[in-house]
Amino acid sequence: MDALKKIKYIVADDSPFVYFKPDIDLSVIQRSFDEIPIDPHFEPGYRYRTQSLYEIMEDGQFKILHSKPLYQPTYINSYNNYGGKTREYDNLPTWLIDDSNFNALVNAWIDTLPGDIDRFSAHQIRTVSDGGEVVPEGRHRDGYDYIGVFIVNRKNITDDCAISIVWVGDTDHELFNGVVEPGTLLSFDDKLLMHNVGSIKAKDGRKDCLRDVIIFTVPECCIG
Ligand SMILES: [Fe+2]
């Protein structure tokens, strides 16, 4: 078993922060970003994204439901006019719902939650370009109960960029501060914790650079 598996920080009785590497074929999840469309709502133009709302059927299979447009009030997300307006995105590739690696990834995240769920949302987010901000709004909550963040790819970016930090609420108490390797899943209680990620820096400015993540949310719906 990987040494990172099931390292658990209990910040309250029902609010875990966990990170580990699920046993999946990462290359399959990486391929799901091959056709990712640009985010038309992100004015700097260096972000790509999709989002889907899923129902978990009795047999454990996933079904894509009609997505609600994303909406965040401005007090949750005041960046770049993201907050206070509705945003629609294409679905994640539909072949993922039949893929055993995606199924195992989702279930690895669900296993960390304190209760059962029957719906969740997933968001693919690609950040590109030297200096591209992964979290332009800075330290924040996403505004949901539980969040899963799966790091899918770091390509042509420096080994020490895009540092993730997770805090207990608005205190200075850090539960995590470091670079998260591709293949690692972070799961945390969004109600009690805050998070941030630094910008990406190209190793070689002549080549494309990127960082890909999939974010899971429950209750289903939107993130910034
Ligand atoms: Fe976030």
How would you summarize the topology of this molecule?
Blueprint: E1 7-10, E2 16-20, H1 26-31, E3 47-56, E4 62-65, E5 70-71, E6 86-87, H2 100-110, E7 119-128, E8 146-155, E9 164-168, E10 174-178, E11 185-189, E12 193-197, E13 210-218
Antiparallel strand pairs: 1-2, 2-11, 3-4, 3-7, 5-6, 7-13, 8-11, 8-13, 9-10, 9-12
The protein binds fe (ii) ion.
- Fraction of residues in H or I helices: under 10%
Number of separate structural domains: 1
Order of helices and strands: EEHEEEEHEEEEEEE
Q: CATH homologous superfamily - what is it? A: q2cbj1_9rhob like domain
Helical stretch count?
2
CATH architectural category: Sandwich
CATH topology: Jelly Rolls
Distance between the termini: 34 Å
C-alpha geometry: globular
Instruction: Record the strand order, biggest sheet.
Output: 1-2-11-8-13-7-3-4
CATH C-level class = Mainly Beta
Biggest β-sheet strands, sense, barrel: 8 strands, antiparallel
Ligand identities: fe (ii) ion
- Count of distinct strands: 13
Point out poorly predicted stretches: 1-13
